[in-house]
Specification:
Chains A, B: It comes from Aspergillus pseudoustus. The structure is a homodimer. By secondary structure, chain A is of the alpha+beta class. In chain A, 51% of the residues lie in helices and 7% in strands. Chain A has 20 helices and 8 strands. In chain A, β7 and β8 form a beta hairpin. In chain A, α1 packs antiparallel against α6, α1 crosses α8 and α9 runs antiparallel to α10. At the A-B interface, α3, α4, α9, α10 and α11 of A face α3, α4, α9, α10 and α11 of B.
Chain lengths: 459, 459
């Protein structure tokens, strides 16, 4: 079957034919970094009630044997199932603790959908480490490019991690299933017509965030396996007149993002690691505030108020966190997060607790933080996530600080030592006490391209 | 937990508390009519390649034992599975042959999502006929009201049967699981944030139509079971500022449709049966043409050309059928469908064949049919599906005919004898040769409220 002359077909064709030997070493190494980071996030999020409910669904509706594994070893004897359900559970768990990676241009968290799906399918088909890495690179490429295409106006209503990510999942799974370009295009089409995930849940602290990522994995795997078995997906689901662009994007799309410079650059190299444990939209401001406090010797108790000029998407997402009744909501409040950072000198996963929600000094600080729209910062977003804070001290000084990128951004990525530290802390937060197990998994991640069997990434 | 004072919460509360004894007999009887009609559609669609691929997915990813049954008995030994997968397969199969019911105001086909999901869950929980009927009434009510809320502008891009239907599925499943109003609201929230299904597939005859209905079943069941197990759905997914209305509706919504007159009228009474086997948007015109030909003694070979003034949604959907390379596409071409009806005197399921695609007299007739936008008809749509044809005969006469509703509409519904005839023909089309089996299932459908076990609706 000949492919149509469209951007989406070119993307599908490239995805299908990419080989491990095509990849520059930097892309391989970064994929391993992202994989370890994802693994830590997955075990850290396993106890969330949404994950528990989804595990129950998987047990009730899916098979309780299979080739694909749940990262949470404590779920045994329910330790293996079919790839769709393993990815559903692992994908839900990895998007709980707000520590997963963030791809700036697409405003998506690719790891939380690409790795659970690719790992589950790789285990199902018996892929080796090199095939797995290649499929993950494909998944990142497709998901991030589609997210960039959908853009900022889409992100106002939709959780792009799911709506764009599902196409990345489909492409990664299709690659592992060795689908040809036409079948891969079908898989992408069937994925795109299932794209869903609204931000409404942020307004009442509902559990949809985990639903969105888990289901993007499940549904993208459905798209790929059914394409293998003859189900035809529509060929131009992204740009077609009744496709995603027309149906899901009220504003401007970025068509060239779909296929420009395929294979010349790699999206895995442009994803940022989270260092702070809060919503990524707070990170630039946290970095700016911590830099300011360090440079100028300003302490928590010296600060009277903070003005945070920022971009519209931050105002939209962070403006929905309400009164922060839960720890999860508190990570979406600019005021609360800056208060934690200012008081504790950091905002790591262990720094957000129930006790902090009741700490009046934090609550009072939170109320003295205001966000305001900044045209220049908004124009640069999402290519650039600028941080800017204007601090007024109790003794009447006004001090400003600005950061051009955040710790963990591609320009300032985490070192392997930092990634290991973060993985250990995530495992600890997830209740893993066997340090040897954690170290062994870290070493396997660094050796991923030489692994011949991808089973056993289980805590 | 107290419910918020919103339309969606009132709908959830009503759904949760409706009892069989609340139902007027007309609603019970019509639900049985709709159920039999759905059963026939399901067996008729079982051989479609999309259904085959979805059956493979269910076998690969789901359990091969369970309490819920596949309507297609030839799939044995894969005859039972979990409710999510049984509904996925049956939901896909029932939306193949373009013979399923159509609810005018919501522009949805409710049966193809509500019955497969409710039957699978009823079998899982051991519900009886009365509980099943009540849950189906709930499913229709929620799905159709949400579809009416989303309206015409949503329908331009989205397959509302899936995007609205998934909420109906969740409500029906929640009712069978005996969820309380707050849990039911959670189920509706989790359903709404998964709502998906784009029309793009119509442009290249892809298989997404079956994906949309099957997945609406699966995903709505996910929403209900996970709500039972503690997964919180967002409380205002329909009308909230980042909900369906804002994200999925470019034009006007109809908020009052969500909760006006709950329990005073029933949406099952407002769904239309399809008599012709083509896209429902062609039916009013087929009726008008057949009436004209009968009244005026006009024959196929007398007709020079036909002008069809119609509403915008018909122009949008039927305008995408292209050259009608497949039998399925041919049912979406106004010209082709009118040619079949004019030549054969009817447009039943056996009247659309591969041979007709190659019949030059039909193709030539098809090219002489033109649609044109009609303001008055469009204003009345979708409450009223008006048919109008202006026929120019070869001897130079111009004759016009107009119908106010189509055969099978609530105002002109099918008799039980007609429903039985249609079910028999659908079963025959699906390759069922055992007439006794068909008659037995017909009798069970008419006796549904007295059934104590809903297993065995298998051809």
């Amino acid at each position: 079957m000949s492919l149509p002359n469209t951007r989406t077909a070119r993307l599908a064709s490239w995805s299908s034919t990419l080989r491990y030997t095509d990849l520059p070493d930097a892309a391989v190494q970064r994929t391993k970094d992202l994989f370890l980071d994802w693994l830590g996030c997955t075990i850290a999020g396993r106890h969330h009630p949404a994950v528990r409910a989804i595990v129950n669904f998987a047990k009730t509706m899916g098979p309780t044997t299979g080739k694909s594994e749940l990262v949470d070893g404590d779920l045994a004897p329910f330790s293996r199932t079919s790839p769709a359900f393993a990815a559903l559970v692992n994908g839900a768990a990895s998007h709980v603790v707000e520590q997963d990676d963030l791809h700036n241009r697409s405003i998506t968290h690719p790891a939380t959908v690409i790795f659970p799906a690719a790992l589950a399918v790789a285990q199902d088909v018996g892929a080796d480490g090199q095939e797995f890495i290649t499929a993950c690179v494909v998944g990142y490429e497709v998901g991030c490019r589609v997210g960039a295409y959908l853009g900022k106006s889409h992100y106002e209503n939709f959780h792009s991690t799911a709506t764009a990510g599902i196409l990345g999942v489909a492409a990664a799974a299709a690659h592992l299933l060795k689908l040809d370009p036409a079948q891969t295009l079908s898989a992408i089409g069937t994925a795109g017509t299932q794209a869903a995930g609204l931000w409404q849940f942020l307004l009442d602290a509902a559990h949809s965030k985990q639903v969105h990522t888990g289901k993007a994995c499940f549904d993208g795997i459905f798209a790929a396996y059914s394409a293998r078995d003859g189900l035809l997906g529509t060929k131009d689901v992204i740009e077609g007149p009744r496709g995603m662009g027309n149906g899901l994007v009220p504003g401007k799309t970025m068509p060239e993002a779909i296929d420009a410079d395929l294979g010349k650059d790699y999206e895995v190299l442009h994803s940022s690691f989270k260092w702070h444990a809060s919503c990524r939209h707070t990170h630039p401001s946290v970095d700016a505030l911590l830099a300011l406090m360090s440079k100028k010797g300003v302490r928590f108790e010296d600060i009277d108020s903070i003005l945070v000029p920022t971009y519209q998407a931050a105002l939209n997402v962070l403006g929905m966190s309400g009164d922060c009744e839960t720890v999860h909501q508190s990570k979406f409040s600019m005021g609360f997060v800056l208060a934690i950072a200012a008081k504790k000198g950091q905002a790591m996963i262990t720094d957000f607790t129930e006790a902090d929600l009741k700490d009046e000094s934090i609550r009072e600080f939170q109320r003295r933080v205001a966000m305001v729209f900044d045209r220049e910062i908004d124009d640069a977003f999402p290519e650039r996530w600028t941080g800017r804070v204007v601090v007024t001290t109790k003794d009447g000084r006004e001090i400003e600080e600005r950061t051009g990128f955040a710790k963990g951004d591609p320009e300032f990525t985490l070192t392997r030592a930092e990634l290991e530290t973060k993985a250990r802390s995530l495992a600890k937060y997830g209740g893993i006490t066997d340090g040897n197990k954690v170290e062994a998994l870290i070493q396997r991640a660094w050796n991923l391209e030489n692994e011949t069997d991808l089973h056993g990434f289980v805590f």
